[in-house]
Structure formats: structure tokens, C-alpha cells
Amino acid sequence: MFQAKSDIREQDQQEINGMLLKNDLTWFPTSLDEVLQRLDQIDPVKYGSDRNYLNGSVSYLSPYISRGLISTQFVLSQLLKKGYEPVNIEKFIQELAWRDYWQQIWKAKGDTINTDLKNKQGPVANHYVSKGIIDAQTGIEAIDKAIRDFYKSGYVHNHLRMYIASLACNVAQSHWKVPAKWMYYHLLDADWASNALSWQWVAGANSHKKYYANQENINKYCFTNQKNTFLDLPYEAFSQLSIPETLKETVDLSLSTPLPEKNKISIDHNLPTCIYNFYNLDPAWKKDESVNRILLLEPSHFKEYPVSAKSIDFMFNLSLNVDHIQIFVGEFKELTTYHHVKNIYFKEHPLNKHYQGVEEQRDWMFPVQGYYPSFFSFWKQCKKQLYA
């Protein structure tokens, strides 16, 4: 049988505290109550008009959605319960839908999202990443500051993500994948579908044209007044732009995830087992049922999609919202073989296809499934559900 709740919590907290690396996670609180308070305080109406500005009314909910603590469906339902009319917050709902859209593409296309999805990116001068970007020494003040803050907080504004991606892929002419893996590594809201497919969108590999931002655009949305940079030019001049000196030197990244040592877990074989992972930390999942709750951390997953110590720390802290959760470091097959785990439940995700047991559907915002070649064809179907 399970230990008492207080015993499990104390044991888990001691274990997790031993793994934390004193990273500053104060930008993103991890208790469910604090997350729900943040959700209650967002302004989805104002978001529609100022979201692109650095100080815009963004929700800062993406880390919690990405880790599965809350879902896009839950966020929308809470907003509608507060009395917001969909027509007045459509831009915010649309932004949530982008996350589901990227996930649907990953679900449909699988590992092919790791390659140029629609078009071959070009020109490509290297398959690395500019040292100037990694070191926050690009010479573009707003971008350099955003990267420095990114390393501290694990978060970067969506508009800045596009600026950085454009700089890396379209100005420095790096293939999108390595810079995308660098950003994913440091993001608290690390979601490979959203990250990889957005980088491809900027680089023209998942869109009809490349995305560029010139200095005027950056100054406008970041409140800077920088001039005479290599980006201080009209958009039609970008096709003739040579790689700037500050971006020419490249580095090959060696990224690894610091996972804890394997530890003993206790399984009650009379109970079913719910498998949690990096993408599912939902504390409401089967909350009132007696089950084994295992946070499965597969080394093979983190070898393919490495994340930083800060991201792991954030995940561990979020996992404490799940009662009686235990941590297992190892592959799914190891868990089922060595601990004779049967009667398994898990939530659908593209990286869970090797799991065996009962797969439960994720909490999608709308019942719109399958691959759509463009977001707006996907959104058209979502709108029919939204206004039904």
C-alpha cells in the first residue's frame, strides 16, 4: 500500500532538493495555487492589441501548458467561465490554438518534423549556431539583452524568439535545427513541436517565405533606439545581406540533461499505474482514484531532446503538485519489466508511442484532429466549434 501522503511528500522533497542547482525559478512559481492565480489575473482582451510589444499583456502560462500542468482546454474554459465573450478574446484563443496546431502536426508527421517539413531551407552556410548568439554578442541591443535574460529566466517573449530565429537562420544562414535545439534546451516552456516548427516557419522550411525583422521593427516593439546596425535597412535589401562579422563564427553544441540517479520506487500491484513524464504533469488527472503515480524520465528521451538543469528543476517542482508521485529514471520497458508494472494508463503524446497500456486523449481545446497544411485552415475548423 501507499505510504501516508506526508511521508511521500517529505521523501520526494528531500530527493528533489538534492538535485536542484540553485537556479532562480522565481520568475515562474510552481505551486498550482500560484499558477491558477496567474491565470485569473491575465487580460486576454488587452492581449489582442499589445501582445507583440516586449511589455505586452502576455499570459506567461506557456511553461505550465508545455509541462501539462494545465491545458489549453482548461485555460479557455476558465476564461469563458469568467464571462469573456469569444469574439472579444479571439486573438488570445487563436494563440492557444497555435500550440494545439503544432502538436497535431507532430502527432501526424512524427519524426519528420525534425527535418525541413515543406521546403528545403536555403541558403544554408552551416549546421551550427553563431557564437555571437550563444554569447549574447550579436550587436543588436534588444536581442542581446533578451538572450541574457533568457539564460536567467528560462523564458523569452515570442516576438524575440522570432527575431533570434531570423537572425540565426536568415542572416547568419545556419540551418534551423541546431539553434532550435539550443533554444529548446533553455526554455522552461520547452515544447519541441512549437519550437521546431516555429523555427522552420521563420526559416522558410515550414512556410511560403522567410521571416525577417529589421532594426526599425525591433526598435518599435522592444523600445530601443538603436541605429546603424546590420539590420538597419529596408526589407528588400535582406536578400543581398552578407553574414555580419559578429555572426560568422559558429559553435557546435554539446547539450546534455542532468538526470538524477536511479532510485527505488514502491508499486502496489493491486492498483493501476498512471505514467507521468516531461510533457504530462497534470495534477487533476485521476485525482480522486487510488493509483500508482510514476514520473517516468527516460534517458533516451533526454538524449534526443536535451534540456537544461533549470528546466529539469522546474519540472521536478511542478511534479510536487501531483499527490504521491514517485520518480523513476529509466526506460519504459525497464519500469514494466523490473517492477512488474501492469494495468498502465498514460496520456497521448508523439513521444509516448512505445508505451503500452491504455492511452487517454489529451485535453485538446477543440475536437479538431489531423494534419492541416496551414494554421488558418486548422483555425477555420476550430472557429466553427468555438462559435457553435
UniProtKB/TrEMBL annotation:
Gene3D superfamilies: 1.25.40.80, DNA Cyclobutane Dipyrimidine Photolyase, subunit A, domain 3 (1.10.579.10). It comes from the Bacteria. Residues 92-213 form the Cryptochrome/DNA photolyase FAD-binding domain. InterPro entries: Crypto/Photolyase_FAD-like_sf, Cryptochr/Photolyase_FAD-bd, Cryptochrome/DNA_photolyase_1. The keyword Flavoprotein applies. Keywords: FAD, Flavoprotein. Transmembrane segments: none annotated. Pfam families: FAD_binding_7. Its cofactor is FAD. The keyword Transmembrane does not apply. This is FAD-binding domain-containing protein. It comes from Lutimonas vermicola.
